[in-house]
Structures are given as structure tokens and as C-alpha cells.
Design a protein that fits this description.
Layout (H helix, E strand, L loop, with lengths): L4 H6 L37 H4 L8 E3 L2 H10 L3 E6 L4 H11 L2 H10 L1 E6 L4 H17 L10 E5 L5 E5 L13 H14 L1 H18 L13 H12 L24 H14 L2 H16 L13 E2 L7 E2 L2 E2 H18 L2 H17 L10 E2 L2 E2 L2 E2 L7 H8 L1 H10 L20 H8 L3 H20 L6 E2 L2 E2 H18 L2 H17 L8 E5 L2 E5 L2 H18 L2 H18 L32 H16 L2 H20 L5 H20 L15 H7 L3 E7 L8 E11 L4 E3 L12 E5 L5 E6 L4 E3 L8 E4 L2 E10 L7 E10 L1 E2 L8 E10 L19
Parallel strand pairs: 1-3, 2-3
Antiparallel strand pairs: 2-4, 4-5, 6-7, 8-9, 9-12, 10-11, 13-14, 14-15, 16-17, 17-23, 18-22, 18-25, 19-24, 20-23, 21-22, 24-26
Helix pairs in contact: 5-7, 6-8, 9-24, 10-11, 10-12, 10-24, 12-13, 12-18, 14-15, 16-17, 18-19, 18-20, 19-20, 20-21, 20-22, 21-25, 22-23, 22-24, 23-24
Length: 830
């Protein structure tokens, strides 16, 4: 990133001490008895996280127009605090900072305070977390993001400073929140113009960073992109302790399971038998299943490991982790028949059924990491507790099996883990494997009874549509692979809940459900993950209703999120509130991206139904994000998996001459609305006649338009005149203009029963034009976009008018005479 000199030179906001992520703190603040204050506006919210703040003395607003109108009216900056219910340091800041009456008084006097649950509003969280990272880069800070996210905004929502956790007072050279509030208020009142200027800089960079990069250089959609992603992930493998995304320069940093990346490796291992890939993914899954990140008594997985050996976790339990890890262990068990892998999957499914499933079939979101102000206290043990619960002899054996004879790196007690295999532990104890399994079952029953008597972690019982979709998929696969009817029943019960309680009268989805109420607009992830769950349910049960529902939601997803100009799906719907940027991405992080899952879904729908339009649409998604493959191949693991599936299906289609549909004939026809949206029917390929645009001069360009067989588009000029003509346009940031556009002569075309002669283009046509390049663009890089507006028809139907585009970065020469001729064969001499 190019740093803004004016931003840095001010030194104003950089002088604020913004603290590192909360994980950098060594001591756990003690839990204090909470004082009951009168209810604030958050008391009317449904989010358990927001409700935790409903009796703070802070005059909180939920995210919405009321808060921004108040900030504009009172001429105050906004303090935005984002967190989630199972975030440990969010709770610490709530107790020590937002419960502090003196601090609350400062916040209420000088700021409009907004509290957001990131799980309800991932769009807001994504934008302002990116803003924090951009802010850190601009002030040259090595810090990273985290929660709670604390940002200061202008009344228009533009970020100008931020941090993560702030303590209630200055400590060890770090500024406390009161000092930060005082400095921000002083700067806002005395340096307002400069603050707003910095906000514009940050907002501009955020907008640029969060939009896909244009690239005119075509990227071939082939197996090399998949191999690049696989290789990049393998290069991040920890050969000692397992896992990927391992940072050699920071070997003792936190480690995440990253299911999306392991899923790609496991798929490659199963399909190719590659020895290296197989070793990496199976070692990683084994290390995770044996580590303390897995709950060896109650089942399920904690959020991530704080150490390299997967020993001490961050103890929160998230539904999306359970949902993504279960299929991995099921597939690994099918490959190897290792009991450990089956056990990890089954115990996780059983845990979700017993602890995270509502009476209506919905799946809850998360369990907190702390009880009584101490993270992990609910899950850890002392040797005395084990001996008291199991007796001396069994306590000795238990310590051997679950690592209590190993060094204990966690201050609050022993984290149970498997330092060796069950078979090795049985040999060390001198008993048969079956006898050890029997004794472990007894130990588990006794210790779970003891654990149940402890204060319980907070349950976030809201249902999130996307996470429920992931869990439906996991239960459907569990039911199919393990031949277990109760898992299929759980998947169907949850799918019924999703389609009735979280779906509106027009087929649109809501984001969350709690206490009988569905609320908030759904995001792309909600649609894509719900479709994924329904497709797995169809594949597991063969029931047409699930495939039909998947296709209906795909049609609605396309209607609400598709980018008609450039292709791909936006994260927010077309009718969503306007934020400082509208994002569209394909990076698979802790949760996979909606575009990646949508691409996987579309390939599966094409295979299941034999409908070619699904693959056409998938191809457009790949083309939008293809340049990212070369820049960040490790970040597009599920997009790579979707591409592999797409290439395999295209190869099969080429071999047989058709797609093999498996669906019932009754569901083989797309809704008309989706057909009109999906069938673009043209491919674009531009060429320039120079290697760099000549400033202060002109150059030539040709746009080849390849029209699908059996289809045509209207000529320019059109005939009859009321038909929309095909139009070639250009968008440029630096004033490049399109001129002297020369459309080819249209071909005559007649429809049966109609006397009028139509003028159309079919096959492949060239459209020639000139680019007029302003002199002031010299030396700049221009991200231009070429657009073709057209209407596609066959001999029976016309689709609605649409726009296809292709774009990318084009270099402008420093002088006109620097431009060199290229692509001469594409430009006939004039």
C-alpha cells in the first residue's frame, strides 16, 4: 500500500496509543459484581451480545439511521464498538469499561455510541475491521485487528481512528480508554478539518481494497490454478505439529483449523492419491483431533489453539467450526477407517444435538469461552478433582490417557488432550483397546456430571441462517455416510425451520432468528450456505423438495446479489442499506466466502439438473476472481475446489456431448426469472494496437463479441428502430474516451409469421473504435472497463437487455512516442 504522506505528517491520530489485540494481555481481569443500571436502547434488541450491554450506563444506540442522525444533529463523532457473544475480551471491556460510570459519562457527553453484534452485521464488521487494518498501515503500526473492535467515525460513518481492547485506565505505558476519549474529543473540536481529511483517506483506501481488481489480461481457467492453490497451502504446513497457515517466523502464534484449506487438500488427496498431500492433511486432522482444541469429554471443537501444539485453545465454541470440521473427519474416516476420525465426527454431531439445537430444529450460534470471569474454567481440571471424581486407580489411568502427566501450560488447570494414540495408551496401561474404550466411557459419564454442576458458559441462542446451512450439510453427510437416521432427521428438521421461519413471503431470507422473530436482511453467505445444506440434504435423501428449494433460493440469490456489470455476487443485496463500500470478494477465511460456495453450488446444480446455464454463470464468477488466483492462491481454497469440479464437469460434457442431469424431470426447468438473469450468451475479448496508451493522442481498440450458437443480438443501428441496439461503452478513471465506434453491418433475420426484417449479429463480430487519451494521464495506470449493452434472442424468445463487461489495468506511457505497436493482425490497415 502506498502511504499517504499528508496523513502521516499530521501525526495527530498516530499519537493515540492503540493497543494490540487482547490476546497480548497476560493477566485475566477479575470479574466484578455488576451494578444494575436502567435499561438503554439495546434492551429492545434480540442479540444476546447486545443484550449483555442493555444495562450499561453508556447511552448505546444499535446500528441504524437514528444514531447517524443524532451524530449529525449534535455534531459529534461516533464511537463504534463491535463484538460478539463468545468473545472473551469483549466481555472484559464490557465489565471494566462500559460499566464504569465515569467513562460512560465521557462517552455520552462527547460521542454517539453504537454497539454492533458482528454476527448479525458481518457487512459492518468487515468494512470497519478493514478500516482498522488500513489505519494501522497508514500510521505504520505493526498491530493487527481483533475484537472488540473499537472505531471512531465521522457522522457520515467514515472511519478516522481505531483500536481493539482499551483498558479502563492508563497502565504500563498504554493509554486507557478515558485518555483516548479525551484526545479524540480534543482533536475533533480543534482539528476537525484534518480529522475529516484523514477519514477521507482511510475511506478511499478501504473502498479500493475491498473491491475486486480489474485485469485485462485473461487468466486461463485450467488445472494450473487449482494446483497453485494446493501447492501454496502445502507450503504453509507445519511438519512438526500439523496444520496449515503456519507462520515459520512466528512459530508459537495461534493456530486455526482452517477447514476450507484442509477441505481442498483432502479432496485432492482422495482424487489424486498424491502421497504428500495425503500426509499433510491426515497429519493435520490427527493433530487437531488429539489436541486440547477438541473437547474430549463433551464433544465438539473450540475456536482455535493459542499454541503450536494444539494444546491450549481459545475456549469458545462456534457452530460454524463444528459444521465445517465434521465433514472433514467423515471423509478422512472413509479414506482411512481410522477410529479417531469417526469418533471426532460422531462426538461433534452428538454435542451439537444435545447442546446447540433448539426445540424447533434450529442450531444455536455459540458457547462462551468464560465462566465467572475466567476463560476455560468450565473445561479444565485439577488432579485432585479427577481423583475425587474417579478414585485413585482410575485417576492414574485417566492422567496417562489425557495428558495430565505432561507439562501443563495453562494456569487455570489441565486441558485434556491425547499425547499419544489410544492404542499406545492401552499398551502403556497393559489393557486391551476395547477395555480402555469401556473405561473412557465411564470416566466421561462421571466427569460430565461434575462439569454440568459448574456454572455454565453463556449460550448465544440466536439462529444464523448461513451457519444453520453449514450445519444442515454436516448432519446430512453424517446421516448418509454413517447410515444414521437421527442425523438425517436433524438436518431435515433444521431445513424445515430455515424455509419456514427464516423465509419471507417473496422467498427472501432473513439473517437471524431468536425468540420467535426473524430479523435483518440476509447476506450472500446466508443464501449460498443454505443452498449448500439443501443440496447435501437432497443428495442424502433423494427427496425432490430439497432440490426444488435449493433452486428457488439460487434464483432469489441471483436476483438480489448478482453484479450485472462485472459478474460475481455482492455480499449485500441490491436493496440493502448503503454503506461506505459495497463489497464483493472470494477469500475463504474462517468462514468460506459466499462467492466460493455459490460457485460450488452452481456446479452441483448443473450436474444434478443438466442445465447448462448454471455452468455459464459459474464461469463468470471464475473470470471475475481469476486474477486473484495468481496474487493469493492460498486464500481461494474453496474457489479452487469449485474450479476443479467445474473443469471435471466440462471435461465430462466434452466427452459425452451433454451434461448428465440427475434430477427428476419435474424440477429440470429453471424459473423464468432466473433464465432471463443468467443467460448472457456472449463472450468478450478486447485488443489494443499499442502496448501503452499514448497520452495526448489516440490509439485503436477492437472488441470481439462471440455470440453463442443459436442466439443473436440486435445490430447497431437496430431494425426495427424500437429494438434496443447493441452499444459499446468505456469507463475510465483518468478521462480516456471512446470515439469513432464502428459497428459491423447487421445481418438480415426473419421470424416466422412476422413481416419485419430484423438486423442482427451472430457468430463472432469485431467492433472497432479509437481511444482518446488525455495528456494529463501520462505515466498513470488506468483501470478501464469495457462494456457491451445488448439484448440476446433466439428464434423464439428474447432475454431482457443486459450488460457484459471486461476490464483491467492499462498503463499510460509518459510520452506518446513511447507507445509501441502490437496486435497488428487484429487491425486492418485503414
Amino acid at each position: 500500500m502506498r502511504l499517504n504522506r499528508r496523513f502521516l505528517a499530521s501525526g495527530i491520530l498516530a499519537s493515540l496509543l492503540f493497543l494490540p489485540g487482547a490476546s497480548a494481555f497476560d493477566e485475566t481481569p477479575p470479574a466484578a459484581e455488576k451494578k444494575k443500571f436502567p435499561a438503554n436502547r439495546l434492551a429492545k434488541e434480540s442479540s444476546p451480545y447486545l443484550l449483555l450491554h442493555a444495562h450499561n450506563p453508556v447511552d448505546w444506540y444499535p446500528w441504524g439511521p437514528e444514531a447517524f442522525e443524532k451524530a449529525k444533529q449534535d455534531n459529534k463523532p461516533i464511537f463504534l464498538s463491535i463484538g460478539y457473544s463468545s468473545c472473551y475480551w469483549c466481555h472484559v471491556m464490557e465489565r471494566l469499561v462500559f460499566e464504569n460510570e465515569t467513562i460512560a459519562e465521557m462517552m455520552n457527553e462527547h460521542f454517539v455510541n453504537v454497539k454492533v453484534d458482528r454476527e448479525e452485521r458481518p457487512d459492518v464488521d468487515d468494512i470497519y475491521m478493514t478500516s482498522l487494518i488500513v489505519y494501522y498501515q497508514l500510521i505504520r503500526s505493526p498491530q493487527g485487528g481483533g475484537w472488540p473492535l473499537s472505531m471512531f467515525l465521522t457522522p457520515e460513518g467514515k472511519p478516522f481512528a481505531g483500536g481493539t481492547y482499551f483498558p479502563p485506565e492508563d497502565i504500563d505505558g498504554r493509554l486507557g480508554f478515558p485518555t483516548v476519549l479525551t484526545r479524540v474529543h480534543e482533536l475533533w473540536t480543534m482539528k476537525r478539518e484534518e480529522i475529516e481529511s484523514n477519514a477521507e483517506v482511510i475511506t478511499g483506501v478501504v473502498r479500493k481494497e475491498m473491491k475486486p481488481k480489474l485485469n485485462l489480461d485473461p487468466v486461463a481457467l485450467d488445472e494450473s490454478l487449482v494446483r497453485s492453490s494446493v501447492t501454496s497451502i502445502e507450503e504453509s504446513y507445519d511438519p512438526e505439529q500439523g496444520g496449515v497457515d503456519f507462520n515459520v517466523g512466528r512459530p508459537n502464534g495461534p493456530k486455526f483449523p482452517v477447514p476450507s484449506k484442509l477441505r481442498l487438500l483432502l479432496d485432492r488427496a482422495r482424487k489424486t492419491g498424491d502421497e504428500k498431500t495425503t500426509r499433510i492433511v491426515l497429519h493435520s486432522l490427527e493433530a487437531i483431533a488429539m489436541g486440547g482444541i477438541r473437547d474430549h469429554l463433551g464433544g465438539g471443537f473450540h475456536r482455535y489453539s493459542t499454541d503450536r501444539a494444539w494444546h491450549v485453545p481459545h475456549f469458545e465454541k462456534m457452530l460454524y467450526d463444528q459444521a465445517q470440521l465434521v465433514p472433514l473427519y467423515l471423509d478422512a474416516w472413509q479414506m482411512t477407517k481410522r477410529p479417531l476420525f469417526r469418533q471426532a465426527a460422531v462426538e461433534t454431531l452428538e454435542y451439537v444435538l444435545s447442546e446447540m439445537t433448539g426445540a424447533a430444529g434450529q442450531f444455536y450460534s455459540a458457547l462462551d469461552a468464560e465462566t465467572e470471569g475466567v476463560e476455560g474454567k468450565y473445561y479444565v481440571w485439577s488432579k485432585a478433582e479427577i481423583e475425587e471424581s474417579l478414585g485413585e486407580a482410575d485417576a492414574i489411568a485417566f492422567a496417562e490417557v489425557f495428558g495430565m502427566n505432561e507439562p501443563n501450560p495453562f494456569e487455570h488447570g489441565f486441558v485434556l488432550h491425547l499425547p499419544r494414540s489410544r492404542e499406545e495408551s492401552a499398551r502403556n496401561l497393559g489393557i486391551a483397546d476395547e477395555e480402555l474404550d469401556r473405561r473412557i466411557a465411564g470416566w466421561r459419564e462421571a466427569l460430565l456430571a461434575v462439569r454440568a454442576a459448574r456454572p455454565q458458559p453463556l449460550l448465544d441462542d440466536k439462529a444464523i441462517t448461513s451457519w444453520n446451512g453449514l450445519m444442515i450439510a454436516a448432519f446430512a453427510q453424517g446421516g448418509k455416510i454413517l447410515n444414521e437416521p437421527k442425523y438425517l432427521a436433524a438436518a431435515e428438521h433444521a431445513a424445515d425451520f430455515l424455509l419456514t421461519k427464516l423465509r419471507g413471503p417473496d422467498g427472501e431470507l432473513s439473517r437471524t432468528y431468536r425468540n420467535g422473530t426473524a430479523r435483518l436482511n440476509a447476506y450472500l453467505d446466508d443464501y449460498a450456505f443454505a443452498v449448500d445444506g439443501l443440496l447435501h440434504l437432497y443428495e442424502a435423501t433423494g427427496r425432490e423438495r430439497w432440490l426444488s428449494a435449493a433452486r428457488e433460493l439460487t434464483a432469489k440469490q441471483h436476483e438480489l446479489f448478482w453484479d450485472e456489470t462485472a459478474g460475481g455476487y455482492y455480499f449485500t443485496s441490491h436493496d440493502h442499506e448503503e454503506l461506505i463500500v459495497r463489497t464483493k470478494n472470494a477469500f475463504d477465511a474462517v468462514i468460506p466466502s459466499g462467492n466460493s460456495v455459490a460457485a460450488l453450488n452452481l456446479v452441483r446444480l448443473a450436474r444434478l439438473t443438466g442445465d447448462e446455464t448454471y455452468l455459464d454463470h459459474t464461469e463468470q464468477i471464475f473470470k471475475v476472481f481469476a486474477p486473484v488466483f495468481s496474487e493469493s492462491p492460498r486464500g481461494l481454497s474453496l474457489m479452487s475446489l469449485a474450479l476443479a469440479d467445474y473443469l471435471a464437469l466440462r471435461a465430462a460434457e466434452k466427452k459425452t456431448g451433454r451434461l448428465e442431469g440427475e434430477a427428476h424431470p419435474e424440477s429440470a426447468t429453471l424459473p423464468v426469472a432466473l433464465q432471463l438473469e443468467e443467460q448472457h450468451k456472449v463472450k468478450l475479448q478486447p485488443y489494443l494496437n499499442v502496448d501503452k496508451l499514448p497520452p495526448g493522442s489516440t490509439c485503436r481498440i477492437v472488441l470481439y463479441v462471440e455470440i453463442d450458437a443459436g442466439w443473436h443480438i440486435n445490430a447497431n443501428p437496430s431494425q426495427p428502430e424500437f429494438y434496443p441496439p447493441t452499444v459499446f461503452r468505456l469507463k475510465s478513471e483518468h478521462g480516456v474516451k471512446l470515439k469513432n465506434v464502428r459497428y459491423p453491418k447487421g445481418k438480415e433475420f426473419r421470424l416466422k409469421g412476422i413481416d419485419d426484417v430484423l438486423l442482427v449479429y451472430d457468430g463472432k463480430i469485431p467492433i472497432y473504435a479509437e481511444l482518446d487519451v488525455p495528456a494529463e494521464a501520462a505515466g498513470k495506470t488506468d483501470p478501464i472497463s469495457l462494456e457491451l449493452e445488448y439484448q440476446a434472442c433466439d428464434d423464439k424468445n428474447c432475454l431482457r437487455k443486459t450488460t457484459a463487461s471486461v476490464g483491467g489495468k492499462v498503463q499510460v506511457a509518459t510520452r506518446a512516442d513511447e507507445s509501441q505497436p502490437i496486435n497488428e493482425r487484429h487491425f486492418p490497415k485503414e
